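Notes from hallway chat w/ T.B., transcribed later so I don't forget. T.B. wanted the structure written out for a chain they're using in a teaching module, and asked if we could keep both sequence and structure tokens in one place. Agreed to drop them here.
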Amino acid sequence: MVKPYQLTRESRYLGLPLGFGFLGVTYALSAYSYAQPYFLGTATPYIQLVLRAFAFLFLVVTYLFSKKTENARWLWDTILVFLVIALIVSFILVTVPDVDLPDYLTTSAYVRVLNLVCIAYICAHTLKTHIEKPDPETIWIPFAYLFFGISQYSLMIYALDSSMSAFWGALAIRWVGLAIFLFIAYKAFYSAKKGRFDEANTP
């Protein structure tokens, strides 16, 4: 995912690796927090919410400005700066000692609604792209995001009624989405590597 940035040096291509990087960090934090719920203090769950929300926002902005135009490039650079600043400020606010944080359940509900909106846009965008340029592999991308959306919705149900089936179902569905993305990344890497090999061995 970093390859387009290395080739073009356009910062808008940093959105995907940054977005998935943040998602990976939040999922790693979630996994570790099951054993150590407050290993970063009482702000641990809030840090996960902030990072996950910004991960999806990065992805949305990346897809939104995926068209290569001068205006899109300028807007992406500007929005990226503001998003990074907002992320840093949010991170500081939730980690400052002796600060009364808002109710976690209420905050998580709002954040997950935001995540669902972001995921809905990404699903629509990737599906539209696939319809315009059909490819047997790209059809899996909106499905992967759809699994992320179902996972977020299941976590909202868990927050409302503490249903453990919704909680474990959300985790399982999330891993399905991640597995699909890993498969897509592997296929893309394998295809690119195979193409370079064939080109190198072509007389």
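Follow-up for T.B.: Residues 102-203 form one domain. Might be a good example for the class.
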